[in-house]
Amino acid sequence: QVQLVESGGGLVQAGGSLRLSCAASGRTFSSYVMGWFRQAPGKEREFVAAISWSGGTTYYRDSVKGRFTISRDNAKNTVYLQMNSLKPEDTAVYYCAASSRYAAVYSDYAGTSRYDYWGQGTQVTVSS
């Protein structure tokens, strides 16, 4: 069992930055692939980024490449999402998720069904 708690959301102007954190409980955090998703009002939850258990492999949706960086600190049981050059269209509730499932290619981790545990979400609002 893994419990995930996100923090770091807030209101920021376009072009600004935020750093989201996701703290995980449990001693097996380092064995999970971790992902970030987001959901805007009236829209489906969408993939943002994923990171391998070691941190050596990352995968992003195209619209955030070059602006967002996912990282993890297994000693602290925490995964991060550094978001720079934020745009109004980045406004959403951001969720972290943990996956114990194998995927042949990292693009498979873009699907919500790959994940076993979810946090409660943190709101990010980007004003224009």
Helix-strand string: EEEEEEEEEEE
Low-confidence stretches: none
Distance between the termini: 40 Å
Determine the number of helices (DSSP H or I, runs of at least 4 residues).
0
What is the 3D form? globular
**What fraction of residues sit in β-strands?**
over 45%
Quick one: how many beta strands?
A: 11
Q: What layout of secondary structure does this protein have?
A:
Layout: E1 4-7, E2 10-13, E3 18-24, E4 33-39, E5 46-51, E6 58-60, E7 68-73, E8 78-83, E9 92-99, E10 117-118, E11 122-127
Parallel strand pairs: 2-11
Antiparallel strand pairs: 1-3, 3-8, 4-5, 4-9, 5-6, 7-8, 9-10, 9-11
Give a written overview of the molecule.
- The chain is mostly beta strands and 128 residues long.
- The protein contains no helices and eleven strands.
- The model has no long low-confidence stretch (mean pLDDT 95).
- The strands form two sheets. Strands 2, 4, 5, 6, 9, 10 and 11 form a seven-stranded mixed β-sheet that branches. Strands 1-3-8-7 form a four-stranded antiparallel β-sheet, with no helix packed on it.
- The chain has strands spanning 4-7, 10-13, 18-24, 33-39, 46-51, 58-60, 68-73, 78-83, 92-99, 117-118, 122-127.
Kindly summarize this structure in a few lines:
This protein has 128 residues and is mainly β.
What are the key terms here?
46% strand, 0% helix, seven-stranded mixed β-sheet, single chain, globular, 128 residues
